[in-house]
Design goal:
Blueprint: H1 9-29, H2 80-84, H3 86-91, H4 99-113, H5 118-126, H6 139-150
Amino acid sequence: MGLGKSVNINDRVELAKELMRGIKSKTDEVNSNIVGGQTVMNPWFMIGGTAITTVSNNDILLPRNFEHGDTLILTKPLGTNISVRLNDYKNENKIEIDDELSNKITNNAIKYMTQLNLYAAKLFKTYEIKGATDITGFGLLGHANNLLNEQDKNVMFKIHSIPIIEDLKD
């Protein structure tokens, strides 16, 4: 099973069960529930969801309010996009990588992608973190630039180390 390949109905049912089992395990981890739902029949396998919560304005961290001397912390290593596309790059002859290493890197990426941000959020509360952002489609440089543009005061980043998914940096 993979992107662009047809999936028979039995595989779809098993895939849906496994995806729902994974979603349920994460909702259990945060003592939450799965509610509602709708079914749409189409030729493509799809599953989605929305997480909704209520917080006070004081609990919302925005990508601003950084000051000179603050530390910028990455709560997860970089490299998930590359990690999950390794087989595509391999099939397109853009990289040479053996299946065992490719699978190991992909599994490490999945481990981080399925790790809840709850634990980082708890640390943010403990250490009174003032601001936050994600690092997604814009990458590290794009999001760092966005952070700089959001600040009321002049700040500059000094990079000491960047965590990268295991085995990807080689």
